[in-house]
């Protein structure tokens, strides 16, 4: 599903990723944790082709994001839920979902939207409401729902817990597990807090010094 080899990425002041390698198999749920500034966002943005690496190779669904426009990567089945959700505040919930329906014919779009609303009934209730008026948890649901509209095979999520109350975060993580089983998605999640993802993901890795290390279980 995803293979990253020897990835180096800079932001002008030395490497953020320093020869990082990662393999995620079809159907896996992998979490990458790391402190503030460790490079988690840079990793996801590089996989999505939004950040150009200095060196190294990314292969996702058999394709190289370096040679594809982001919308083509989305059409190929890569969904990216960005840090801070980035919903379109002045658009309705339904219109936000339409933005995510890249390359779908009208019938397909309606069918996928019905599935999305079944998974997130709260969004269905607020279909005509402007996204900017939703709560933080609802906006996170919408960001995930928008990515699902592209029927991703690989869904990447950047700190979905950011700014959410613990109970809402727990609900979001429960949704991710359902998405894996009901939508057959492979999941790659990045989060700061290791304790959040333990027992949720199949595998947890820690990003430090620009490289990934097996995570050591934290005693609660
Ligand atoms: N556009 C940019 N220009 C300059 N430096 C950047 C840019 N984006 C990120 N950085 C720097 O690169 C490093 C890694 O940032 P990144 O956002 O990937 O980390 P992160 O692990 O996602 O952090 P956070 O948990 O705060 O989101 C940080 O030192 C950050 O300040």
Automatic annotation (TrEMBL):
Keywords: Amino-acid transport, ATP-binding, Nucleotide-binding, Transport. One of its GO terms (molecular function) is branched-chain amino acid transmembrane transporter activity. The keyword ATP-binding applies. Residues 2-218 form the ABC transporter domain. GO terms for biological process: L-amino acid transport. InterPro entries: AAA+_ATPase, ABC_transporter-like_ATP-bd, ABC_transporter-like_CS, BCAA_Transport_ATP-bd_LivF, P-loop_NTPase. It comes from the Bacteria. SMART domains: AAA. Belongs to the ABC transporter superfamily. This is Amino acid/amide ABC transporter ATP-binding protein 2 (HAAT family). It comes from Actinoallomurus bryophytorum.
């Amino acid at each position: 599903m995803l293979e990253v080899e020897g990835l180096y990425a800079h932001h002008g002041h030395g490497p953020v990723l320093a020869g990082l390698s990662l393999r995620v198999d079809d159907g896996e749920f992998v979490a990458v944790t790391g402190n503030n500034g460790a490079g988690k966002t840079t990793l996801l943005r590089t996989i999505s082709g939004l950040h150009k690496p200095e060196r190294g190779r990314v292969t996702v669904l058999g394709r190289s994001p370096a040679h594809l426009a982001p919308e083509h990567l989305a059409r190929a089945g890569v969904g990216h839920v960005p840090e801070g959700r980035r919903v379109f505040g002045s658009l309705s919930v339904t219109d936000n979902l339409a933005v995510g329906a890249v390359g779908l014919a009208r019938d397909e779009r309606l069918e996928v939207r019905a599935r999305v609303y079944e998974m997130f009934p709260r969004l269905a209730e607020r279909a005509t409401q402007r996204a900017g008026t939703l709560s933080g948890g609802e906006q996170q649901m919408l960001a995930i729902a928008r990515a699902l509209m592209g029927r991703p095979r690989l869904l990447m999520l950047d700190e979905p817990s950011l700014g959410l109350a613990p109970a809402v975060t727990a609900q979001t993580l429960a949704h991710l597990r359902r998405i894996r089983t009901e939508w057959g998605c492979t999941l790659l999640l990045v989060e700061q807090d290791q304790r959040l993802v333990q027992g949720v993901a199949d595998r947890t890795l820690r990003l430090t010094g620009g490289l990934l290390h097996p995570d050591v279980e934290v005693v609660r």
